[in-house]
Amino acid sequence: MSVNDRLVIDSRTEEIVRARDWLAEQAIRAKFSRETVGDLKLALTEAVSNVVCHSYDSEPGHQIILSLSVDDEALILTIRDFGRPFDVSLYQPPDLNKLHEGGYGVFLIHSLMDQVDYDTSSGAGA
Fold first, then answer.
1. 111: part of which helix (H) or strand (E)?
2. Any bridge partners for residue 8, and if so which?
3. Which residues contact 17 (CB under 8 A, 6 or more apart)?
4. How many CB atoms lie within 10 A of CB 12?
5. Which of 63, 62, 55, 27 has the alpha carbon at shortest distance from 43?
6. pTM of this structure
7. Would 60 disulfide with which of 12, 22, 80, 85, CB 3.0-4.6 Å?
8. Beta bridge partners of 66
9. Residues pairing with 7 in the sheet
10. How far is the C-alpha of 13 from the C-alpha of 80, rounded, in Å?
11. C-alpha torsion sign, points 66, 52, 32, 96
């Protein structure tokens, strides 16, 4: 089964629910397991939350574009924003022996997904 879809949301945390529902619907339609759908929803939640909070400083009124491509080989989700880019070279995984609030989003995304890529070549966080 091949799926290609796109969703544009606003940079508000309330929009995350709509994005999660959209992704879950597409993944279920493509016959992904319940566990995989849960992992996808969690990774999406963390990624979009990071865009809203860090790229757009929690300021509504900015676009976040979600593009999804699913075929027999892979599910590829692209999250594009036009805010401050994420500098992946500065990322340090959290020390799991020292629990603290926040800072686990990127770690969770990388733990849940087979592959995570960042493209900031356009000057926007993509």
1. helix 105-112
2. 65
3. none
4. 16
5. 27
6. 0.85
7. 12
8. 7, 79
9. 66
10. 16
11. positive
Measured from the Cβ of residue 102, the count of other Cβ atoms closer than 10 Å reads 7
Residue given tokens 């401050």 in the structure block: 84
- Mention every residue, 6+ apart, whose C-beta is less than 8 A from residue 67: 5, 6, 77, 78, 80
Location of structure tokens 């597409």? 26
CA distance 13 to 107: 20
pLDDT digits (tens, 9 = 90+) for 76-95: 999 999 999 887 777 677 67
Whether residue 11 contacts residue 59, with contact meaning beta carbons closer than 8 Å, is answered with yes
- pLDDT at residue 124, rounded to an integer: 52
Residue type, 104: Y
Q: Which residue is it, tokens 């996808």?
A: 40
| Coil/strand/helix, residue 87 | coil
